[in-house]
């Protein structure tokens, strides 16, 4: 990589002046640096020359060269008159020797990057393993390297055995994975917001999490994270050239990982693509879907559910989605977990008609809580061609849960069907019109008199008009309940034998509950 005048200006915190370089021009290459001496006739066109402003007053820059001017006195525009002169003005605190030393360091860095790139390229041609690549990286960078996959589980390291006073590295090397506290802090780090915005972020600084600073290189394929290569600032500070070398090493690791993963990665991609095609309704022929299911080896149990998992902390990153994808794959022991429209979608097959038992659902809710996620679950279905429709149910369950302020991390569409139907009427009519007159009368009376006739009637209907069970559920005496029921009939002329009326009363109660949340 060439050293440009723009790069020199950046490291010296200088600015272009007069007829000098454009702020966005990165094409002027510099091959050397020297002190300006007017007596020298052999100024080279691709060199930059250092001169003080006080010396420039007595001289004219009659050469079409690049100059670095130290502002040891104010600049007079008349001092630079020659067309074609590219000049950088730097602060008076710089001296010529320091400027030359700093720019020469740039050339040394570029030579080091170029030499390292050749070695990394040769290693790829020779078919180096991931471990051999990390060993080469440790040799080139002089600081320990640690490679983990998208679920932050250990893959390989180099130089990590000689580290002291770094508990998180010691934990990972001994346990084989990153601890949960560290993983959570990394995946919600505000410094990763650029990744959310779709920028190609290749390296990320992690500070404050370890005892040493750590530069993390993202191992990517088509902007999909495969792994993370961590460079610990342990033996010496990490330089800009180290960053460039780490990025090249990540590219090499990405190629090696793909070769190592081979067909399993391809199979996973094919099944992911198949499920996404079903969600996008690009496949609808039942026989074709069943054939793809067979080809891709999706040996599913007969009972199917669609789950949609949303990350509630909006500081999530693309990397965090892939991290959580692996977490939920491990939890359900299923590969049918995909990333779709910024959320995780799971096709879960089960032997029984229940999605999970009570203990498993409690564990699932704890996992959602740990990762700040909420899940929507569809009704049961039996054919893959119904996947899209039930995905919509799970997605609607999430939205309905928000509207109705449902507590907990799991929203089951089975429990939200009636609210969904009622809310669907909002575009057609005022849903207050769905409330039965009996419910309106009793609700108004309870609010005015402080009675609880509506609660009593609903409990009585829910217990199939069993007086004993209803009195027990309301914690009232049997005779008290009988008095209330008789009084309700007197006030509303309610016919308790009319099943249609009783259904409308239950529906009206649901409408009232929904209105209270809106």
From TrEMBL:
Source taxon at top rank: Bacteria
Limits of the CdaR GGDEF-like domain: 285-399
InterPro entries found in the cross-reference section: CdaR-like_regulators (IPR051448), CdaR_GGDEF (IPR041522), PucR_C-HTH_dom (IPR025736), PucR_C-HTH_sf (IPR042070)
UniProt domain PucR C-terminal helix-turn-helix: residue ranges: 454-510
PANTHER family: CARBOHYDRATE DIACID REGULATOR, DNA-BINDING TRANSCRIPTIONAL ACTIVATOR ADER
Family recorded in the similarity comment: Belongs to the CdaR family.
Protein name per its UniProtKB record: Helix-turn-helix domain-containing protein
């Amino acid at each position: 990589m060439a050293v440009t005048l723009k790069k020199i200006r950046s490291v010296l915190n200088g600015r272009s002046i007069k007829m000098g370089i454009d702020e966005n021009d990165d094409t002027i290459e510099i091959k050397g640096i020297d002190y300006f001496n007017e007596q020298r006739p052999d100024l080279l066109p691709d060199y930059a020359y250092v001169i003080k402003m006080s010396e420039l007053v007595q001289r004219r820059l009659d050469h079409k060269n690049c100059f670095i001017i130290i502002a040891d006195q104010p600049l007079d525009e008349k001092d630079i008159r020659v067309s074609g002169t590219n000049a950088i003005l730097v602060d008076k605190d710089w001296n010529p020797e320091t400027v030359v030393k700093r720019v020469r360091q740039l050339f040394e860095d570029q030579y080091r990057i170029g030499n390292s790139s050749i070695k990394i390229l040769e290693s790829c041609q020779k078919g180096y393993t991931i471990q051999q690549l990390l060993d080469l990286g440790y040799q080139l960078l002089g600081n320990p390297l640690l490679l983990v996959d998208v679920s932050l589980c250990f893959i390989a390291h180099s130089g990590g055995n000689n580290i002291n006073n770094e508990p998180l590295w010691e934990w990972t090397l001994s346990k084989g994975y990153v601890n949960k506290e560290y993983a959570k802090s990394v995946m919600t780090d505000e410094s990763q917001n650029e990744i959310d915005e779709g920028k190609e972020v290749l390296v990320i600084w992690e500070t404050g999490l370890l005892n040493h600073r750590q530069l993390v290189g993202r191992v990517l394929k088509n902007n999909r994270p495969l792994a993370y290569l961590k460079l610990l600032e342990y033996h010496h500070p990490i330089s800009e050239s180290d960053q460039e070398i780490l990025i090249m090493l990540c590219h090499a690791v990405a190629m090696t990982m793909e070769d190592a993963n081979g067909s399993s990665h391809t199979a996973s991609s094919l099944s992911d693509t198949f499920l996404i095609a079903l969600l996008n309704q690009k496949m609808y022929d039942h026989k074709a879907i069943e054939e793809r299911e067979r080809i891709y080896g999706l040996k599913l149990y007969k009972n199917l559910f669609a789950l949609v998992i949303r990350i509630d902390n909006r500081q999530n990153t693309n990397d965090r989605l892939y991290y959580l994808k692996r977490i939920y794959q491990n939890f359900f022991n299923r590969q049918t977990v995909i990333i779709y429209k910024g959320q995780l979608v799971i096709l879960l097959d089960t032997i029984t008609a229940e999605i999970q038992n009570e203990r498993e659902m409690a564990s699932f809710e704890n996992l959602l809580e740990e990762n700040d996620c909420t899940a929507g679950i569809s009704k049961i279905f039996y054919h893959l061609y119904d996947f899209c429709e039930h995905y919509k149910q799970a997605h609607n369950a999430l939205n309905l849960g928000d509207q109705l302020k449902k507590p907990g991390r799991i929203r089951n569409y089975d429990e939200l069907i009636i609210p969904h139907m009622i809310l669907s009427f909002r575009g057609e009519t005022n849903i207050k019109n769905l409330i039965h007159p009996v419910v309106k009368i009793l609700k108004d009376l309870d609010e005015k008199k402080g009675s609880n006739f509506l609660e009593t009637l609903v409990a009585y209907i829910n217990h199939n008009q069993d007086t004993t069970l209803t009195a027990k559920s309301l914690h009232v005496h049997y005779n008290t309940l009988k008095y209330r029921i008789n009084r309700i009939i007197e006030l509303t002329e309610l016919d308790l034998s009319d099943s249609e009326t009783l259904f409308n009363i239950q529906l009206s109660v649901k409408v009232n509950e929904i209105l209270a949340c809106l």
